[in-house]
User: What shape does this take?
Amino acid sequence: MPVYNSKKYVEIAIQSILNQSYSNFELIIVDDQSDDNSYFICEKIAQHDNRVKVVQAKQNRGAAAARNLAFDYVQGQYIVFVDSDDTIDQDFLAVAYSYVNDNQIDCVKFGCIEEYFNSDGKKAYSKECCLTEQVYDTPDTIRQQMVRMELIPLFGYLWNTIYRASIILDKGLLFNVQYRVNEDFDFNIRYFKYVQRMQCSSYCGYHYAKRLNSLSLSTKNNDEYYELHMMKIKEFLQSFSSIESIDAQTMSDIFWLYTRFVYSAIQRKTANNEPVNTFIKAIRSSDLFAIYRSVHFVDISVKQKIMILILRSKYEVLIHGVIHGISFVRIHCPFIFAVLKR
Assistant: This one.
């Protein structure tokens, strides 16, 4: 658990772990030089439970560096990540162990419960994001499922995943500290190169808090958003031997993700009152957009068809109209936006 200025939430997050019905675990907390009371809260808890180890980073370098530091202290066979403002159900680790105790699974992916909180801290909306119970044990089915999970989205997250520690430690997998966002996706892409058998679980025991006062991607990291999300698309495409080898459904799924990312990137620039016409032209002249034009989409809804047709259209005024609609809903009806954005 990386911790930085989480004094409002960290004790509840830690207690949800210590209250697990499965007790044979270690909790490694890395405080990233918090300047509130977070470190002392963690230290106080550690004094009363020897399963808790608190490490303090020498300097504030972000969650990626904090997680890398935690790897130096890992002794267990499997690794689970929990964020310092989230919670897990009491049977989360017991369910996780039930999947990995036969030592045949390299990775388990769970669903989660997204919980949206108002600026006053009250929960306003929650939604279960679930996976179908299934094992994937061939390279093609694993790659296809990686894309399907990201549509939810559940692939890129760390905290809904059980990792085999030996893969991470023996292969020297570390988080890229240059990424301020999407370092989790980048880590997962590299980890999944070594996954031979993956279990998807229908269990949803992780509570992922999305707080209104921190939903700031429209202004934070705005310059990097488009490049980082195009990185996702390229990584998915490159995980296959060639574009021609990708089945129609997976290709359709990848480029529906692309559609969503492009609209979101344009919307973020619009929200910041940045000029977008040049940006749209750059998108349309990119290699990815050239592939996008030729993709045959299958099993898509009317909403998806309309958004794809407009993005492919030469009439930029249509794109602007959609973007203004998205911006209005995102700003004035954020919980409706959370439902509709999928």
